[in-house]
Amino acid sequence: MTRQRAGMLLSIPLAAVLICGCRSTAKLTATSDSTDPEAVPTGTGDPVTEAQEDYEPSVRVSMAYPTGTKSSSVVLLEKVTPRITEIGRPFDYLIEVTNLTPLNLASVTVTDQLSPQFEVTAAAPSLESHDSEKLQWSLGNLEASEKKIIKVTGIAKETGSVVGYTAVTYDNARLYSSVKAVKPVLELTVSAPVETLACDEIPIEYTVTNVGTGKASGVTLRSQLPEDLRSTDLQSSLVFEGESLEPGQSHVFQTTVKAFVSGKYTVKAVAHVGVGNLDDEALAATGEITTRVLMPIVNLTCEAPSEQYLGRSIVYKLTVENSGSGLARDTVLENPLPAGTELVESSHDGKLVGDKVVWELGDLAATESRAVTLTLHASTPGPILNGAVVRSGCDQDATVSCKTVMKGIPSILLDVTDVSDPTEVGENETYIITVTNHGTASGTGIRVNCEMEDNMEYVSSSGPTSSWVEGEDVSFAPLEKLDPGEDSRWHLVVKATRKGDARFTVKVQSDQLNRPILETEASLFFD
């Protein structure tokens, strides 16, 4: 921009005389480059300094620029000087600059062109430049209606007119207008839980803030979900649009997503001002958040004897383990009672609820395990299949089963009695052989063998199985089965052939016995 300067020039002649012991009066006529009446000098009657007290009052000359009238001009330049002074005696003169407008005048400069007959001794304010011919002051800005006064002190070196010319310049008045340039600037933050379980929905918040200076119209947010992460309606691309934000205003977009497998997921998003500005990075903001999805995995194992005898309890050890990476919440273990069993006891506050034992294990941390025991009593032989199930808050179930075969044992009791003891020689003696199963399982292949002494003679035998005689031994064919609580009887009749203390020995063998059962009955034969 080219700076235009405006200015005006004002001149005043001053008479300098040599005073020789008398007082004289000089009339001063002021001249100006303006013919306007307002520029004609007028005497104020006010002395400038004490040095002029013996002479005529001072003279004030003014000029309004650029029109010559104050009402339509920009600046008023005035100069006040004494009418007469003595050679060598200091005197003062004033230069007054007044802004006639309601606007600011910039770069106001006053220049005073000096007469060769005048020597400057002081000036206020300080001079910007000074030589023997010219004084210059840079007054800077002149506010609306402001006046600034310059004071110059000096002496006249010769008699005659001391003529000085004063000029003022300034920058033309400027009209300023401004248009505020604004710009919306978006800031995006994405928040989600640092860790969560795969069975939980994951809340995500996208916070878009306008940190710029202009309105963000039609804010659009887009978020692409990573693989295995989907919204509740199974979408992988999310779009939110239509919000407008004033400077400093924020809006929160919310959604929930679900993970299909455990792992780390990074959710990224970008917010734009308007749909048409998707490629304008200056009007876009990006954000992302990483969340770790944990997966609890509950496992259940069962330990129990593969076989147990009837009458003895079965102890089951059930172990629940969380082998996953997340917390297994609200873990519950249930064990229905197998048919034919009854509860003896359960550890760790297991409670019988209906026909099942329930343990409320609570929360299991990753890699944590809990073990409980269950003691049952079975009343019948055969396989007992015990099954249990564990459930956690992530809808994960684990089942287990273990089998124990309940075995009974045949407990064979042998009883041999003689009917007519003592027995006379020549008479018959009957031995009753009773085999009873007091056990919990059937005895099979039960074989009875009798041994007679030499004073006995076989007469006859009877029972559930046939018999045969070999010398002094009588054997019965095997009894196929003898169930628990049952008994079988065999009868053997012998003749007493000689007096004496006789012994009748019976041996019983079965498929379940490794050694025979022996029973000896003593009989007295007499004559």
CATH class of the largest domain: Mainly Beta
Strand content: over 45%
CATH topology of the largest domain: Immunoglobulin-like
Q: What is the CATH superfamily classification of the largest domain? A: Immunoglobulins
Strand count, sense and barrel status of the largest sheet are: 7 strands, mixed
> Uncertain runs with pLDDT below 50, 5 residues or more?
12-56
Count of the separate structural domains? 4
Q: Rounded to an integer, what's the Rg over CA atoms? A: 66 Å
Summarize the helices and strands and which ones pair or pack.
Blueprint: E1 5-12, E2 15-17, E3 31-32, E4 42-43, E5 59-65, E6 75-81, E7 84-86, E8 91-99, E9 105-113, E10 118-124, E11 129-130, E12 134-142, E13 147-156, E14 160-161, E15 164-171, E16 186-191, E17 195-197, E18 202-210, E19 216-224, E20 229-231, E21 237-245, E22 250-259, E23 263-273, E24 284-294, E25 298-303, E26 307-309, E27 314-322, E28 328-336, E29 341-346, E30 351-353, E31 356-364, E32 369-378, E33 382-391, E34 397-407, E35 412-418, E36 423-424, E37 428-437, E38 443-451, E39 456-462, E40 467-470, E41 473-476, E42 479-482, E43 487-496, E44 500-509, E45 517-526
Parallel strand pairs: 2-7, 17-24, 26-34, 36-45
Antiparallel strand pairs: 1-3, 1-15, 2-14, 4-5, 5-6, 6-8, 8-13, 9-12, 9-15, 10-13, 11-12, 16-18, 18-22, 19-21, 19-23, 20-22, 23-24, 25-27, 27-32, 28-31, 28-33, 29-32, 30-31, 33-34, 35-37, 37-43, 38-41, 38-42, 38-44, 39-43, 40-41, 44-45
